[in-house]
Design goal:
Layout: E1 3-5, E2 15-18, E3 27-31, H1 38-44, E4 57-58, E5 61-62, H2 68-73, E6 75-78, E7 87-88, H3 89-94, H4 102-111, H5 115-119, E8 128-129, H6 138-152, E9 156-160, H7 168-182, E10 186-190, E11 202-207, E12 210-215, H8 217-223, H9 226-231
Helix pairs in contact: 4-6, 6-7
Length: 238
């Protein structure tokens, strides 16, 4: 509600009067060129930053009144760049839920479309990864990130350009895994490829910290504004 945000060392407003209401189970897509404020909005939800003015509430409670640890347990994030650490593939998935059972880990991997490639590895879930996961493809790393989010079973999910670094052939496998993960959750999506967010309940077009258009895909296409230009290729996303 009326959210504004500025970094501590800057007077420049990154977000300017953002108003957005999301119902449980809805998928909200945030689109627009770099610097529009998309990532800042999703970083406010798990309190990586706090709003400068206005309020951000979940279930009617200001996020600043939540315990940070308990708040973040309710939010799963699939980032553009997946963080993997030295250890087994199993332990990298289990990072999403430290007390996950083997059955939960395997089920999460199946949900993420990761189980098949894992079982083709010589040591399966016991495969040891190097620190940056360089032995895996970018797509396989993203499938592990989806499995990591799935095993945590969070009610809220943030997908931050999760397929932008993947070739289009691999993207369909990753997108299928994300579609299954999104079912029944409240989801915020930042998308580079607009074809991936056509079915969102609502699309917010941001420009210089403001929401300049909002609506579903069909509505925004009919309006022939900024989203229409982005979708039809008249404008390029940064």
């Amino acid at each position: 509600s009326n959210v504004e945000f500025s970094y501590l060392d800057s007077k420049e407003k990154i977000l300017k009067g953002i108003n957005l209401k999301v119902k449980k189970g809805e998928t909200i897509a945030l689109v627009g060129n770099s610097g529009g404020g998309k990532s800042t909005i999703v970083n406010l939800i798990p309190r990586f930053f706090d709003v400068t003015n206005g309020s951000l509430e979940i279930d009617g409670i200001d996020v600043r009144d939540y315990n940070v640890k308990s708040l973040r347990k309710k939010i799963g994030i699939v980032p553009q760049e997946t963080f993997l650490f030295s250890g087994t593939l199993k332990s990298n998935i289990k990072y999403g839920k430290n007390d996950a059972t083997d059955e939960e880990i395997i089920e999460a991997a199946k949900q993420a479309n990761a189980h098949e490639f894992i079982m083709h590895l010589e040591h399966g879930y016991q495969t040891v990864l190097s620190g940056d996961g360089s032995s895996l493809s970018q797509g396989q790393c993203q499938l592990l990130a989806i499995a990591r989010a799935a095993v945590a079973n969070p009610p809220v999910l943030i997908l931050d350009e999760a397929t932008s670094s993947i070739d289009t052939r691999t993207e369909s496998i990753v997108q299928s895994g994300m579609d299954k993960l999104m079912e029944g959750r409240t989801v915020f999506v930042i998308a580079h490829r607009l074809s991936t967010i056509k079915n969102s309940d609502a699309i917010m077009v941001l420009d210089q910290g403001r929401i300049i258009e909002r609506g579903d895909h069909d509505k925004l296409i009919k309006e022939k504004g900024t989203y229409y230009q982005l979708y039809t290729g008249g404008l390029e996303l940064d």
